[in-house]
TrEMBL record:
It catalyses: (3R,6R)-3-hydroxy-10'-apo-alpha-carotenal + O2 = (3R,6R)-hydroxy-alpha-ionone + 4,9-dimethyldodeca-2,4,6,8,10-pentaenedial; lutein + O2 = (3R,6R)-3-hydroxy-10'-apo-alpha-carotenal + (3R)-hydroxy-beta-ionone; all-trans-beta-carotene + O2 = beta-ionone + all-trans-10'-apo-beta-carotenal; all-trans-zeaxanthin + 2 O2 = 4,9-dimethyldodeca-2,4,6,8,10-pentaenedial + 2 (3R)-hydroxy-beta-ionone. GO terms for molecular function: beta,beta-carotene-9',10'-cleaving oxygenase activity; beta-carotene 15,15'-dioxygenase activity; carotenoid dioxygenase activity; metal ion binding. Its EC number is 1.13.11.71. InterPro entries: Carotenoid_Oase. Pfam families: RPE65 (PF03055). This is Carotenoid-cleaving dioxygenase, mitochondrial. Binds 1 Fe(2+) ion per subunit. Its main location: mitochondrion.
Amino acid sequence: ALDNFFIHSSSSSDQGCSLIFLYRMSSKKPQTIAAAQKTYFTKVHGLPNITPLVSSVQETPEPIPTTVKGTIPTWIHGSLLRNGPGKFEFGNQHYNHWFDGMALMHRFQIEDGQVTYRSRFLCSDSYTQNSERNRIIVSEFGTLALPDPCKNFFQRFLSRFEMPKPTDNASVNFVKYKGDYYVSTETNCMHRVDPDTLESKQKVDWSKFIAVNGATAHPHFDPDGTAYNMGNSYRNKGAFYNIIRVPPERDGPEDTLEGAKILCSIAPRDKSKPSYYHSFGMSENYVVFIEQPIKMDLFKIVTGRLRGKSLNEGVYWDPNQETIFHLIDKQTGKEMPVKYYTKALSTFHQINAFEQDGFLMLDMCCSDDGQSINNFLIQNLRQSGEALDEMYNTMSRPYPRRFVLPLNITSETPLEQNLNTRPDSTATAVCHTKNQIFCTFEDLHGEDLKDYGGLEFPHINYARYNTKPYRYYYGCGFRHLVGDSLIKMDLESKKFKVWRQPDLYPSEPVFILSPNAEEEDDGVILSVIITPVKDKSTFLLVLDAKTFEELGRAEVPVNIPYGFHGVFNSSA
């Protein structure tokens, strides 16, 4: 999901949708989200209401047993850790946007074919302050906190001139640095948590270690544990994109981000209006940054409190700008002089990136539009009938695509001809000048994927195939506003297998490698399944990753809202 933008003060049934995209813009000029004109992409009717999937729930801080049906393989030892919003109001004040909800962490512990479940709200400053006052104290992405009613009129007026503080509501993902687990959003604050109890242990601020104002919730890792991430910084000369490297070693038990360094800083096309990015790509030798035309108007964001506007009001889509791929050498930290361009697109999750025969293959889920994240206002998600259908039908869908980037560009490289010589590849890369290459993509799917609403939340066998040539990827199909199917795609045949059942909504698939695995898909897929039609009917689903058939499920008598991301913490 597209998460928090915060600045620190320094033709078939085609029932498809994406989780995160904007209304198509019809004007020649960049427009804010509010000025967008609707374009209908599908003609779906009768979508079921999913209000329970975006409603507050209670935490379950102590482990409870589940009822196992079928078989959970006994070789699985560890826990699936999940993160996402779980509370959408305090007192009589309600959050406006799905991404504003307070972080609720989940743990499915798997041992000897049995499963236990527990959950806990993150004890962030935002959650604590809101709970103590029983109202919304800290602003979130789509919700501006109102002035304290206990203050007099003059004090409330002056409070509008205060710089907004970044939220520490880390509701997006679990991430791992130096062997410790953190929950993260996209601000400068993470929380180190105990992966067994889910208790919050320490608030960690990126800006205390390096000059950045935040970092993504999707780091990448080298085999030795070195972590790479990206984060923006806002200086007197404007905004910069920064590549971050965190070493795998720790000097002591209290060590957090010590030793983190900025590997490279990249100037945006417009320093006052940098691009939003949710993640980035990484091959064996390069970090790949995708500068897309979803823009953040820094002036509007910084002055939002004064104008009575939330942060999402400063985000807009500019379809007239091209997308730029920047390559950064991981060893030297130098940005490559060659820039790769393609038409305007929006992307939030990459599938994989690898180098082969002088090319870098970049695979990612992307859409041709940046569409309105305001579709994910909570009041919209809780709609039903024609209003729900209309919102869904105005959303573009994300599809898996591959860009082929030629690496060996010299003064002798021929101009105005396709440099992609890979057999059976329809992607193109045409050198216009010595430092500018224009690219088009090839589809990593067949036409029948449209029947499942495209694909998002991609996962691979990361442990063995990240940054390497691979054959399979997994994801969620979106024939609703949230994922409603699980998909396994074969890149060789571009055919896929599907798990889908009526009124069941799966979380992103997580691949677990089986012991003594010989083939890429030897393992299982874990996904948390929820439903809006039956109370307390959540279950953890286990699929055979090769056949995509159900092995078993662990039913847990709790309600869980639809979440974002998670990881598997192995105890083997």
